[in-house]
Design goal:
With about 280 residues, the chain is mostly helical. It contains 10 helices and 2 strands; from the N terminus they run H-H-H-H-H-H-H-E-E-H-H-H.
Length: about 280
């Protein structure tokens, strides 16, 4: 617990400095770095150390170009060749994966279907999901809106932990995550909504623009629910592979995928709601 608190004490100000105070390209760089680390963690967990070593470069490069494609997607670079280059290089890497699968077939370490899927999930799917944070950051008042998925997910995580410790009696998914309880999950949903209400107050004090209270509560609920699903989904992979954590980058928290699993699921849904409604 002490390590978790220390990471939060130093990590939260760092996140705020990058996504709130720095330009949006800093958010893009930070997310790309997280995706590269996450790609290595997932490959190592699912495919094993040898294949992770051999194919991490390809998955990591795909993650970088996927994030670059998201960053170029708001139209600001349409007068340059950058958006087209990002798409061409990403498409070329997708083709390269299948070429490698053909070439490596029958060797000592062939690329199996599971390996190919893992490369695509780590190199494209996860960066696209976390890229929704970047999409939020590039909106008007994006330095505040980008925090919404993290507020909903992290407040839900914390509330679920304390609610489970205080009231937990009924197991939620004992074979996937033995310590999670139904009471903790309900507390997490409440925590997500309360966190968004507090965020709405802080956002108004900083911008003098009131967010719609109903949409904030709904985003808190949906973001918390999706965050919990993300946590359980990544836990399924860990149980299947017989590992406790994806990595050791964050003491007390595990790796990037251990800490941001809930945000990976919450960010796309939050971005979809924000892009469709008037907050």
């Amino acid at each position: 617990m002490k390590q978790r608190v220390l990471v939060a004490v130093f990590g939260i100000p760092l996140i705020l400095a990058i996504v709130v105070l720095a330009p949006d390209w800093a958010t893009a760089v930070a997310l790309a770095a997280l995706c590269v680390i996450g790609a290595h963690e997932l490959l190592n967990a699912v495919c094993g150390g040898e294949k992770a070593r051999r194919w991490f470069g390809l998955a990591g490069a795909m993650a970088v170009f996927t994030m670059l494609m998201v960053y170029c997607g708001d139209g600001r670079f349409d007068h340059t060749a950058l958006p087209a280059l990002a798409k061409v290089f990403l498409a070329a890497m997708v083709v390269l994966v299948f070429i490698c699968a053909v070439v490596e077939y029958g060797t000592e370490h062939p690329l199996t279907f599971v390996d190919i899927c893992t490369i695509f999930v780590s190199g494209i799917a996860i960066p696209l999901a976390l890229g929704c944070l970047l999409r939020l950051r590039m909106l008007p008042y994006g330095s505040g809106l980008v925090l919404i998925p993290m507020v909903a997910a992290f407040c839900s995580d914390s509330a679920a932990l304390f609610a489970g410790m205080a009231f937990g009696k009924h197991k939620l998914a004992p074979k996937v995550s033995p310590k999670k309880t139904v009471e903790g999950a309900i507390g997490g949903l409440v925590g997500g909504m309360v966190g968004m209400i507090i965020f709405r107050i802080v956002f108004y004090l900083c911008t003098v623009h009131p967010l719609h209270i109903g949409w904030c509560v709904l985003i808190g609920l949906v973001g918390a629910a999706m965050g919990q699903l993300g946590d359980l989904s990544f836990s399924v992979v860990k149980r299947q592979q017989g590992i406790k954590d994806y990595g050791r980058l964050l003491p007390g928290h595990g790796g990037v995928l251990d800490r941001f699993d809930s945000v990976i699921f919450a960010a796309p849904v939050v971005w979809l709601i924000v892009s469709l409604v008037t907050l």
